[in-house]
Amino acid sequence: MSHTKLVPSLLLLSIAATILSPVIAQQQCHFPAIINFGASNADTGGLAASFRPPKPPNGMTYFHRPAGRFSDGRIMLDFMAQSFGLPFLSPYLDSLGTNFSHGANFATFGSTIRPPPSIAKQLLSPFYLEVQYWQFERFKPTSQFIRNQGGVFATLMPKEEYFSEALYTFDIGQNDLTAGFFVNNNPQQVKDSIPDIIKTFTSNLKNIYNMGARSFWIHNTGPIGCLPLILSKFLSAEKDSYGCAKVYNEVAQYFNQNLKEAITQLRKDLPLAAITYVDIYTPKYSLFSNPKKYGFELPLVACCGYGGPYNFSISVGCGGTIKIHGTDTVVGSCDKPSVRVIWDGTHYTEAANKVVFDQISSGAFTDPPIPLNMACKR
Ligand SMILES: *[C@@H]1O[C@H](CO)[C@@H](O)[C@H](O)[C@H]1NC(C)=O
Ligand SMILES: *[C@@H]1O[C@H](CO)[C@@H](O)[C@H](O)[C@H]1NC(C)=O
């Protein structure tokens, strides 16, 4: 392109930006806190505080210690907190060193929307969505009671108005689907369970709204058929052209379609709320369909795992110990997690989380199509 053409269009752009920017600045939301509900993709230490913490090399890239996350570094929720200029979220369940002044995280690894079925209890967290709601229901008044003691207590708890100003975020549902597969339900049976899963989600969201929440940011579920967790269990499943197991991704898409419809209804039922549906499936799937675009390689292979074509075994996870040729060996990290998509077979690397976060926060994958910093009620 010649410069003569470029200059006027740049000029126009900068004029437009000058005229528009006061408007844009006015429209930006101020989120002083994040209240998160979810599962392992959004766990900042809830499971670690209550059961068995993730072991090294989890956390190696950023925190240089496991830090309660199932990743080599930051998860999407961390990138969100940083983008708002807020500290990382403390897990509600942690009794050590927590600071809830800018929000709380109720997510734990293995959490489901519906109560875990007894046959899958070993695989799942007891802190399913309704339990997280009960915890929040206690957190709100109790945090204010403590705040009113003044002094150092006040600095550890959110201001009262933060409860209506906060962004309420959700990343949950994947385990309802994968647990179904692991107790040997076929894909059709798992699909049949989805309307009830969504109904349970909706009723919890309404309860949270009734506690004063107004801005909601709701992730759909990712392409579970691309995860080593699923691929290694169902080795003979039919694959798409990128090697992901088709039928499992179809179930995820069916969940997402149901969730999106439920959110459309919620907007009618809860007129005071701003509810954003966030498609994480599409940007996550593009990591598998077009890894080179983002500088990634071996997208279907776990970086920190052991065995088989996907470097994953359900019997020994990242940081676990196995005997190889009679020697105890720790399941460690691949050489460069920064060029990998999947960290431990189920969760994404920090590098992948960053790519997905940048895409969803732009507004390109949200309904309504607004960026993260405008997802509030005005
Ligand atoms: C809690 O975090 C806030 C925000 O980072 C900070 O201002 C406050 O001093 C912290 N409280 C304590 C006791 O560290
Ligand atoms: C598989 O995991 C091991 C750790 O057990 C790691 O050393 C290796 O690099 C991983 N393989 C690939 C291809 O990433």
From TrEMBL:
GO terms of molecular function: hydrolase activity, acting on ester bonds
Statement: the UniProt record of this protein carries the keyword Hydrolase: yes
Organism: Psophocarpus tetragonolobus (Winged bean)
Protein name in UniProt: Uncharacterized protein
Taxonomic superkingdom: Eukaryota
Keywords linked to the UniProt accession: Glycoprotein, Hydrolase, Signal
Residues in coiled coil: none
N-terminal signal peptide: 1-25
InterPro entries recorded: GDSL (IPR001087), SGNH_hydro_sf (IPR036514), SGNH_plant_lipase-like (IPR035669)
Sequence similarity: Belongs to the 'GDSL' lipolytic enzyme family.
Keyword match Nucleotide-binding: no
